[in-house]
Every structure is written in C-alpha cells, then in structure tokens.
Amino acid sequence: MRQALEPILKINNLQTHFFTKAGILKAVDGVSFEIAAGEIVGLVGESGSGKSITGFSVMGLVDAPGKIIDGSINFKGKDLSALSNDQMQNIRGNRIAMIFQDPMMTLNPVLRIETQMIEAIQAHDGSISREDARIRSRDTLGLVGISSPDERLRAYPHQFSGGMRQRVSIAIAMLNRPDLIIADEPTTALDVTIQGQVISEMQKLCRETQTALLWITHDLAVVAGIADRVCVMYAGRIVEQGLVANIIANPMHPYTQGLMGSVPSQNQRGKPLQQIDGMVPSMLNLPVGCAFQNRCNYANEKCSNIQPDITQVADGRQVRCFNIPVGQRL
Amino acid sequence: MKPILKVQNLSKDFIKSLDLVAKGLNRIGQNYKEEVVHAVDDVNFSIFKGEIVGVVGESGCGKSTLGRMVAGILSPSTGSVEFDSSQANNKEIPSALRTQMIFQDPFSSLNPRKRVVDIITEAPIYHKLIPPSEKRAFATEMLQRVGLDPDTLERYPHQFSGGQRQRVGIARALAVSPEFLVCDESIAALDVSIQAQIINLFVDLKDKFDLTYLFISHDIGVIEHISDRVIVMYLGRIVETAPIETFVKQPNHPYTQALLTGVPRLEVGKRQYEPISGEIPSPLSPPTGCHFHPRCKFATARCKAEKPALREIAPAHFSACHLNDEA
Amino acid sequence: MGASANKQSYDLPAAGLRKFWLDFSESPTAVIALFVFLIILFIAIFAPWVSPSNPYDLTSVDIMNSRLPPGSEDFSGNYYLLGTDGAGRDMLSAIFYGLRVSLGVGALSGLVALILGASVGLSAAYFGGRFETIMMRIVDIQLSFPSILMALIILAAFGKGVEKTIIALILVQWAYYARAARASALVEKNKEYVEAAKCLALGDKRIILSHIAPNCMAPLIVVGTLQTAHAISLEATLSFLGLGLPITEPSLGLLIGNGFEYMYSGDFWISIFPGVALLITIVSINLVGDQLRDMFNPRLQK
Fold first, then answer.
1. Considering the domain boundaries, does residue B315 fall inside one?
2. Chain A residues near residue B220 by CB distance under 8 angstroms
3. Does the distance separating the beta carbons of B279 and A163 come in below 8 Å?
C-alpha cells in the first residue's frame, strides 16, 4: 500500500469546453483528482465521458475549438493550464509523457526507431552526445522487454507487430524518465495475450522507476488489475473515485454499479445480464440536474433539478450522488 | 440429432499472385514465390439447432474469415458448409437468405444514404417476401422486435447512436426470417453499458425466433456468458472445441489455458500477470508443425515437426495437442 | 425493456443540407465564387431575356455600328456598355449568348462523360479481375495524352461542328470520372453495408446502383465541377483555334478568336471582354469545386 505522498499532479475543477457551431460541448465539466508520485490511477469511462480530453488537457494538446476555460492543473507546483506552448514543450515528453491507443500516433513511419528516440532525448537535453543518447535508447528498449535492442533500434516501425510498436511507444515515453505517464487506452487495440504482457510490463516498470501512471480506459477489469485508485467518469464529470479495491468490492454510484454489473463475468450464465437502460445523453443537450438521471433506478425529483456535488465517504472515497445513505457520509 | 450446420474441411487461402514482371523475372532465373496466407486451414465442426457456438481467438486466427464463409459472403478455397434444410423453421424462404450476418462496425454496416425503413425492407421486398404495400407496417414490427422506437423509421443512420445502429442491423437481418446468424464481433465497437443490452437482445431473439448462432468474439468474458460450446482458433486452425463448462473449468490446449489466465478479470486484489511469451506469428509465415509451439511452455520436438490432429479427448471435447497422446 | 429509453435518438447537430451549407460557408471565397457562378448561370439560361439586344438577329444589327468603343452610343440611341464588334453586334449581348453556348456545351459533355465514366469505373471496381485491369489500362492510356491533343485528333478525324465538339469533349473527359468513380467504389465495396447487401442476396446490379453508386457521388461531384471548368476552357481553346463550334453558335472562345485580329488596331474590347468573362466563369467554378473537394476530404475534417 502506497504511503500518502505529496501529489505530483493536482487537478482542480478542470473545465475544457468545445465551442462548436452547433453549441458548447462541455467535454470536461469540473474534474478534480490527484496523483501521487509512483501511484497508478485509473480513469475509467465510456465514449463521450471526457476521459481522453482530460488527459489531453493535462498535456496541453487540446486543439480549437476546444479550450480549457477554468480550473487548474498543478504539476509539481506549476499550473500547466497557464503555461505557454513553448513552456509546455519543455514538460511534454520530458516530465510528463503520453502513450496513445494507436502506436502509429507516436511513431513516424519513415524514420528508424533509433532516429526517433535519439531525437526525443536530444530535444530535451541539448548537451547529450548522439552516442550517449543511443545507448540510453537501447537500454530503455531493453527495459520494456524488447530483445536484441541494438538491431531493433535500426528498424522501421512497419517491421514491428502491433504489440511491439506499443512497447516502443512506452519506451519512448520512458526515455527521459518522466514523473508522470498518461496512457490513453494503451492496450485496447492489442490482442488479449499481448495485452497481458504489456500491462504486466508497465506495472513492473512504474513500480521500479517510481513513475506515476494515469491509465485511461473503458475497461474496468484492466484497471482492477493494475491501479491503486480509480476515477469513474460520466458525461464530463467524475462520479466516483477512490481505492480500486473498495470500489470493486462496493461500488456506490449507480453508474459504477451498473457498469460493473453489466460485465458478463459478474453475472450468472443463462440469466440476462444486468444492463443500464438508455444511452449516454447528447453532450450538447445534457439534462438539467444529474446527467445520469434518465438511466438511474434511484433517481428522484432532486436529481432532475440539481446537479449533485461530491459527497465524501470513508477511506478517501468520493461519490457524486444524492442517494448515498446518510450513515455512510462523512 | 443431426447438426443443422456442418462445416467440413473448410479452408480459405488468400493468394497474392505474381504480376507480369515477377513472372518474367522467374523465367530468367529469379525465384519469386506467390504469397499464400492460409487464413482458414482445414476446419471441421458441427452446430446443432438452437445452440450458440462461440468462436474465440486473437488477430490472424481466421475467425472473421470463417464467419464470412459460413454466412456465404466469401467462397471457400476447399471444403463445404452444409445446411440441413429439413430443420429449417421457414421452408419457403430462399436458401440464400438462411444465414445472415451481424457486423462489427455500426458506422459502416448501414448504408448512410438510406432511411432505416428502406434498409430493413429492401431485401424482403426484393425477394418478394412481403408486398411493397406492407412496407411500413413490416418495418415497424421489425423495429419493435429489436427495441427501437418505430417513430424513427424515416431517419438516416447517422441520426442514431452506435448501439441503436446495431439494433437496426439486427432488424435488417431478422427481416428475411433467417435460421442462422453469424455475429462477427457484433458488440466489440460498443460501449460496455450498451454491450450488455445487445447481448441480452441476442439471447432474447434466439429464444423467440428459434435461431442458431455462431458468435465470434475476442472478448472471453462475453463468450463465457453466452455460449453453449466454444471453438478456439489460432492462426487459421481450430485448437480446441469444448462445451462451455469444460472450457471454463478444464481447458486442455496450452493456448486456451493461456487465453483464460491472461484475460483481465474484475476481481478484488492486484493481478499477478503470468503472460505467455512471444508475439503472434505472421499468417504469412506460420511456424511449422503445431503453430503454437514457439510460445508453448510444453513444446516438444514432435510439436515442431508434426501438425497435431483435432482429436476427441472426452465426450464433445476436442483438442489439437500432441501432449494428449502421452496420456 | 429499454424501448422507451431508446426513444431519444441522436439528432446530430445540423444534418443534410444545413450541414452542407455550414461547411461550405466556412470559406468566404467559395461563397462569393458560388454567388458569382449563380449569376453567370442565370445569365446563361435567360440570355435572350437579359441581353440588351439579340446580336444574331440580322435585322437589328447594323454594320454602321461596328467597332464602337465601350460606353458609346449609336445613332439610334442604343447604349453599348462593352462596345461592338466588327459586324456591329453588341459585345455585352454577344457575351451573354456566348456564355450560354459555353456553359451548355461544357455541362452537357460533362454530364454524359460523368455517366459514361462512372459506369465504367463502378463496374471495374465491383467486378475486378481482368475486366478491371483492361478498363483501367485504357483509362491510364487515355489520361496520358494531353487533353487538347486528344481533342484535336478527334476533331481532325470527325470534322467540326457542335455535336462533334461535344463528342470530343466527352471522349476527353470520361477517363477522369472513371478513375474517380473506381477509387471511390473500391473503398465502398469493402464496407460492411455492401457485405450485408451480398448476404441478403440482392444481386450485383442492385448493389452497384442502389448501394455503391450513391455513396460515390461526392468525389464525382468534385471531379464534375472541376472538369466542367476544364471542358469549358478546352472548348474555348478549340473554338479559338477555329476547330470547335461554328460561327452560327459562337461560344466565348470563338468570340475571343474572332476578336483577336482587332487587337492590333487597338479595338481591344472585342477580344478582351469575352476573355474576362471566360476567366471569371472558370475561376468561379474552380473555387466552388476546390471548396467541395476540401469539404469531402476526410483528412481535413475536424
């Protein structure tokens, strides 16, 4: 169990909105959470929940018509949302690195792996020699479990399989020993057996190097296996967050309950799966009050009028719902 | 009881033939070979009426190609898919319509330029199963069967969500009263909370309309929940076939065992992953003998040299592994 | 079961025509170009009613009015905004009638070339194999010739005249449409809704016409606009060289050609103004076509 260290990332009331011709899309609508050094935090949600945009907001990669309009992203004392793009360049790929679902978003198909890795190192450390950078690249490839790294360095991305490419992306992320890695659905596109390999390697890597990891995914089961804490997002807001073990044993928010309940392994064979009726509301047309009300079995009149705030519960758990039993609230 | 569908020695090869230049160069001494991918390699199995048979495997295993051959969209290189028409529910329906397919991508599986009512009724009208005058009534009934609001008849696909589009695709397939449905990763592209809805819909429809399913998925959790029997494929071959209980409790083939332990489970307590080593080989140059031997903990010399036969090791439980011979 | 919860459907923000206009109007240049083109189109269609006079009505044309500079009046009080040509015809009216011929020939040849080229391209993509290889090689050979050269060869073989010019333009253009149609059809062919149509045993003809073709229209429309401009300019070139349309149905190109001799004596307006009209027409069509092409390019979409 990790000790409660000082958080290296503190996001407070982040609001990233998209100003489209059709209206304002509140992709991230008041998200707050923290990550401590060396901690692994899962950010779970379905499509449209805002989880990826949260990751992009931290990295400063939100393009027009999106804009961070409020909130702070405090990284080791600096507010990232207030930095200029040049200042963010020093941090991106250096202190905070990102891994994407499609490794070809990281890898340039016409450059050798070696070129790309050395470039990533020298971009942040002008003084290092090419040979030293190459050695560091080779060692990092070995760190992520790629055999014969010297030969592999000279190869092009298309000569790798999907799983290997993702490993190379992870290696590139690790090159400058960042304090935080943001991984956006890194194993979703991989086969099950390869997924297992990559997850276990990342887990080991982060433990050894004390790198914090924000793992963004729609798959609760993956998060269950790797993360210390988890934040569940719905329609741009965090509806539940806390220790993974607690949330899985006892989900409190109706959405989390529904999400867990609908996983086939949580149901009996032959019986219909528990399901969440309805669909995610259109982000341009959110209902007044709680965004989940139309699909919730416990919704009452209060839910249709007022948006619920965070309720603190034992063990550092936070739930955004009016219907938490009074006895459990702090 | 006879099976309703029998697949025998089914194979599909994708050949990239030599072009004129390569053929010319071959004549003057070069040795260019045709590239052949054995996407499906001598597959045999039977499906009984009312069953849900799950097919599971990773990329390159050939399950999608298999599904398309069963559905009749792709013609096999060798082998046959036989449907026992004596067991058909609706003997008047043309045989070409008996097997329908539910596709993976809700965004490209519906014609973006057609209204839902036309998408659903096009085939029944074309094959004269319903008169054009009954178009709207028929489409309304189909939409209701899949849980969609009939008011949406006049809409276009882009006006629906992913889950709703899958329902439209199911309605389109049901409109021709099929006996057999091939579901090719039909829920993979949907959100988790919607997947449960569609899975429940599938089971519901199977009971109501006496259907039989071939359910292809890479998601082992879903396969475990929905299947009566499971077929495990690796690089074009079947490595194991078992009833669901046996599949879950006593998997025989090392690949099946690796799959089941490698799947992330929603359990309390941090997983200690013991992943199997190695990459999935390229279908262009599969390993000799048993395709799985480079990654198998128990591989022997025989595994490298000889292709294992799919043998019945227990009632209705088949496995293609040399290790079973030792027993 | 969930039916009522599924009632809410995704009315995506602005579908169909409204969305088209929202995307198109992102480029002010294209909107202006569209506006200009619509004016030109209006003039071309309604030329007899919009022109100050009918320049081909021999009774109203007087040789005494020949070569009047722009802005002058003649003895009967007619005002010639753009002057008159060598025979005394009002330039403005001549240009209006010329636009009619130019646009008519361009549009007609474009339309027939579209139908012909799209049929070849779609069937080549759908059926594949030897048929596709042969057809596409023919297309490639055709496209390797400069279009003006092809047109000259065809006209030299068949002679001058309206129908023959239109046929020459069709034969020059169809290959572009064939290529665009084939490329688009190859993409659509592999999509799952086409597989579904095959699964439903809908027959090749139906699948091509009812499923694939409508989804290939977008790139064909882009090619159509750009090709129409190309056809108009090609026809103008041919007429300028004296090989295209006859003097009885003068297009802008012919007007430019006929007026060319007067350039040396300083009566520039007889050649230049039709040239400007041609330029504006082609540029406006090209700008509209450019914006359409950018709109349909998936990589540029946000």
1. yes
2. 192
3. yes
Do residue B95 and residue B75 come from a single domain?
no
Q: Is CATH 3.40.50.1370 what the domain over C28-58+84-300 is classified as, yes or no?
A: no
- pLDDT for residue C252 is more than 80: yes
Which residues make Cβ contacts (< 8 Å) with residue B270, sequence separation at least 6?
A225, A226
Q: How high is the ipTM of this complex?
A: 0.87
Task: Measure the CA angle with vertex B227, ends B226 and B231; round to 5°.
Answer: 140
Domain end marker among B179, B209, B239: B209
Nearest CB to A221 within list B226, B244, B265: B265
pLDDT at C2: 38
Do B10 and B107 lie in one domain? The reply is: no
| Chain-chain contact of A265 with B264 (C-beta, under 8 angstroms) | no
Same domain, B94 and B78: no
Q: State the DSSP string of A127-160.
A: TS-HHHHHHHHHHHHHHTT-SSHHHHHTS-GGGS
From the list C8, C11, C22, which residue is nearest A279 (CB)?
A: C8
Put simply, whether the predicted model's pTM sits higher than 0.90 gets the answer: no
Separation in Å, CA of C107 to nearest CA in chain B: 26
- Distance (Å, whole) CA B283 – CA B267: 35
- The residue type found at A265 is S
As a whole number of angstroms, the distance between CA A299 and CA C268 comes to 81
Q: Which residues of C touch B167 (CB under 8 A)?
A: 6
Selecting from C2, C193, C198 the residue whose C-beta is nearest the C-beta of B197 gives C2
Which carries the bigger pLDDT value, residue B271 or residue A240?
A: A240
Question: Strand order in A212-217's β-sheet?
Answer: A96-99, A180-184, A212-217, A40-44, A229-234, A237-243, A317-319, A311-313
pLDDT in tens, C253-262: 888 888 888 8
Q: C42 and C51 in contact (C-beta within 8 Å)?
A: no
Cβ atoms A218, A188 nearer than 8 A = yes
Q: From the CA of B3, how many Å to the nearest CA of chain A?
A: 22
